[in-house]
Design brief:
By secondary structure, the protein is mainly α. Strands 1-3-2 form a three-stranded antiparallel β-sheet.
Length: 332
């Protein structure tokens, strides 16, 4: 919906909604986006663009030059060099491509989606099609079917497919996705928080971030354990630091904040819950009091540190500087 409004607003000054040219302009953009996305172009020579527009125009009476210039003047298309154009934003190309796929007949659309999803095992293809698939999931009548196509034959504990499916959940209202599929996706995101299931810190942090965006209460216990996962053994701590495990802890803390409020009993350390609430309230004084108490748990002090870093008031910055200069607080 956001990108739909962006495209509408950009077109409006040049090609108003009540203009006969409006629908042809939109369909021409869809055709161009499909051609570029399918053939993996970021820019297209002007003669090729005119050819695509001409096929879309068929026997209708409007000037291609006028259409082309209006789309460039609108800012949706931008000139690149002497005789090339591209979409101003990759997101607009992805959105227009998704709209083009929606206009295919069912047989062609199913075939195209099978071809696209079958190629997602290659990272270059995954990154190329990710945004289009997410936007498409919000347009199709049955997003569950699309997600099952992505999932077909894949191990959710490996690769990027799980994260793509989670982003598709975010694109849709809960009632549009079958509960058993949502639960499967969420359950595997929780499993991806564990180092034994995914050794890459960046992907474990991504799992935490997505659980926070989904506001998934069932993940609270594991996210809290991740925040409090500091081990007093210095050698192991140094190894975890080298592996950038702190990034996972920080993202887990932000996820807990996003999921708030939830039942207090879901977190073993009640002070962690209080700190999350103070973080939301912006209560720097209360957070400071707990950060500087050595007896508090590593989980509580970690949330205190992350909260102060996020709030970024002058007082919060001074507290953090003091805390990180104090070697007794090194395990934050």
């Amino acid at each position: 919906e956001v990108l739909s409004n962006v495209v509408d607003d950009m077109l409006e000054p040049e090609i108003p909604r009540n203009s006969f040219l409006r629908q042809y302009a939109e369909h021409s953009l869809y055709a161009l986006a499909w051609d570029m996305q399918w053939n993996r172009y970021r820019s297209r020579k002007e003669p090729a663009v005119y050819e695509i527009f001409s096929k879309e125009r068929k026997y209708r009476e409007y000037e291609l030059d006028a259409l082309f210039n209006s789309l460039v003047n609108s800012g949706i298309l931008v000139s690149v060099g002497a005789d090339m154009v591209r979409f101003a934003y990759d997101g607009i190309q992805a959105y227009c491509c998704a709209k083009a796929i929606m206009e295919f007949d069912k047989k062609r659309r199913d075939q195209v989606l099978d071809d696209i999803t079958a190629s997602l095992g290659r990272l270059t293809r995954y990154w190329w099609w990710e945004e289009t698939i997410i936007l498409l999931s919000g347009l199709v009548n049955n997003p569950t079917k699309l997600l099952r196509t992505i999932d077909f034959g894949m191990d959710m504990l490996k690769g990027e497919h799980l994260f793509l499916m989670a982003r598709c959940l975010l694109e849709n209202s809960p009632k549009r996705i079958k509960p058993e599929l949502r639960n499967q996706i969420v359950g595997n995101l929780i499993l991806r928080l564990l180092k034994e299931n995914d050794p890459q810190p960046a992907r474990r942090a991504m799992a935490a971030d997505l659980l926070g965006q989904l506001r998934e209460e069932s993940a609270v216990e594991e996210l809290a354990r991740k925040v409090a996962s500091y081990d007093e053994d210095k050698e192991r701590w140094e190894q975890e630091l080298h592996e950038n495990d702190s990034m996972v802890r920080m993202q887990a803390a932000f996820a807990l904040k996003a999921i708030m409020p939830f039942p207090r009993e879901k977190i073993e350390d009640p002070l962690m819950y209080e700190l999350l609430q103070w973080w939301i309230d912006g209560n720097v004084t209360a957070i400071n009091r707990e950060l500087l108490v050595n007896e508090q748990s590593s989980g509580a002090r970690a949330i205190a540190a992350f909260a102060l870093g996020d709030l970024q008031t002058d007082t919060a910055k001074k507290i953090l500087i003091f805390a990180f200069l104090d070697l007794s607080l090194i395990h934050i």
